[in-house]
Amino acid sequence: METNDKPRKRRGPASPEAQEPLARSGTQSIERVVGMLRVIATRGRRGMRIADVVDVSGLPMSTCFRMLQRLELEGLVYRDPLTRKYHLGPLLYELGLLAQPRYQLSDLCYEALQLIADQTQDTVYLSERRGAESICTSRALGDYPIKALTLDVGIRRPMGVGAGGLAILSALPEAEADHIVEASGAQYAKFGSFDPGFLRAALIESRARGYSFLDSAATPGTAAVGVAFPPKNPIAAISVAAISSRLGPSRRVEVARIIQKQVRGICALLQAQAPSAAVGQRKPAV
């Protein structure tokens, strides 16, 4: 039997020009998923309603709804049936159990945080750098009856919002700090009086003092002092938060000295562990 069909040519690999849009589309999808998880993480363990997710992410309601539905199916987020709030899901916890041994700075700093809390009687936070953000990874409570509970463990914020993040930012090279402030400008607007101009002035003051200090900036009525470490390549900061009346000019200097003493001990421990990968992997890309 004769046929007019011609032999089909075997298709070779797509040209680089054809592959590029696909790669870019895949990268953008990953960025959106990671961005959505970061948005939900900003509320720590309190969770977020979908309206808040839309407001913080800037994405349309329909897009957020579709993404959250899929993330819930994959176990990356969990929607509480009573409160209707979205929380980070069980799969992230399970994956975190595998990653945890490589990120143990909070364990290394535990005793120092407790000592600072005992000496100051106020609330002590450990904030670690994650790219252009800082995340609270540990907290210790002092005995003073009025506590400044401005952060929960797991809360992440643009770097510079809060005394811990500001201390890290001020210890970075000026060009790198300026780049972070410029890139995070839109996010700062969500946190009280923070804006690039305010932050740049706060950075100058922090560098001159050797520690950061904020009063009623993100949380009205509370103040905090922060010290970053190590000095030349900061990966984290310890801060003490209290009601504003407890951190007047003389006491904030005293609190900074208490933190600095403990930070020197932590830096000695980090130096002793320098050959291990745990510390070396903490230098983040901006």
Sum up the structure in keywords.
16% strand; six-stranded antiparallel β-sheet; globular; Beta-Lactamase; disordered C terminus; 11 helices; 2 domains; 286 residues; alpha+beta; Arc Repressor Mutant, subunit A; two-stranded antiparallel sheet; disordered N terminus
Q: Could you explain the architecture of this structure?
A:
The chain has helices spanning about 15-40, 50-55, 60-75, 90-100, 105-120, 165-170, 175-185, 185-190, 195-210, 250-270, 275-280; strands at about 75-80, 85-90, 125-130, 135-140, 155-160, 210-215, 220-230, 235-245. The longest helix has 26 residues, at about 15-40. It has 2 domains: about 15-95, Winged helix-like DNA-binding domain superfamily/Winged helix DNA-binding domain (Arc Repressor Mutant, subunit A, Orthogonal Bundle); about 105-280, GAF domain (Beta-Lactamase). A hairpin with a 6-residue loop joins strand 1 and strand 2 (about 85-90). Mean pLDDT is about 85; it is low at about 1-10 and about 275-285. With about 290 residues, the chain is α+β, with helices and mostly antiparallel strands. The radius of gyration is 23 Å and the shape is globular. The protein has a 6-stranded antiparallel beta sheet with strand order 5-4-3-8-7-6. The protein has 11 helices and 8 strands.
